[in-house]
Amino acid sequence: MQNIIAQAKNFVRDEDGITALEYGILAGLITILLIASIATIGSVLKNVFSDVAVAV
């Protein structure tokens, strides 16, 4: 257990790697991509269901 706590403290103190700002930018980009893909898939699904409704 002490080893895990020591590793967590070292991780928090470590200033190398990705910073909080970079994590925020990455999260924002992922969100934009998700919204764009969901909007595209949504319109495609709307057309599919409309075609099915007309066929029924």
User: H/E series, N to C?
Assistant: HH
List unreliable stretches of 5+ residues: none
Shape verdict: elongated
Helix content: over 70%
Mean pLDDT, as a whole number? 86
Rg over CA atoms, rounded to whole Å, is 22 Å
What summary fits the major beta sheet?
Answer: none
Structural class: mainly alpha
Give the N-to-C terminal Cα separation.
63 Å
Q: How much β-strand is present in the residues?
A: under 5%
Number of continuous helical runs = 2
- Count of distinct strands: 0
Keywords: Membrane, Transmembrane, Transmembrane helix
Organism: Paraburkholderia sacchari
Protein name: Flp family type IVb pilin
Question: What can you see in these coordinates?
Answer:
- This is Flp family type IVb pilin.
- By secondary structure, the chain is mostly helical.
- The protein has 2 helices and no strands.
- It is elongated.
- The model has no long low-confidence stretch (mean pLDDT 86).
Helices and strands, with pairings:
Elements: H1 2-13, H2 20-55
Concise description?
Keywords: Membrane, Transmembrane, Transmembrane helix. 86% of the residues lie in helices and 0% in strands.
List keywords for this structure.
single chain; 56 residues; mainly alpha; elongated; membrane; Flp family type IVb pilin
